[in-house]
Amino acid sequence: MTRTVFSVLPDTDLHEVAQVLFANAVRAVPVVDGVEGVVAVVDELSYLVDEMVAESRIGPLY
Questions:
Q1: Which among 39, 48, 53 has a CA at the least distance from the CA of 21?
Q2: What H or E segment, with its residue span, contains residue 31?
């Protein structure tokens, strides 16, 4: 576990999210806004799936 919590904003580019994940050796980061708090969580698998979809150009899976 880490004592430092890393988070991203809803409009953070996915590549920036990946940099946060890998640079800080964390497996997931919460997506937070100034009103509701945590609105989502992005993990390594979410990033990889999104990249695979982008490369295949088949469109989003969700």
A1: 48
A2: strand 28-33
d(CA 39, CA 22): 21
pTM of the model: 0.70
Q: Which residues of 36-49 are buried (b: 16+ CB within 10 A; e: fewer)?
A: eeeeeebeeeebee
- Provide block-wise average pLDDT over 10 residues at a time, the chain (62 residues): 84 89 92 90 80 66 53
CB 60 within 8 A of CB 49: no
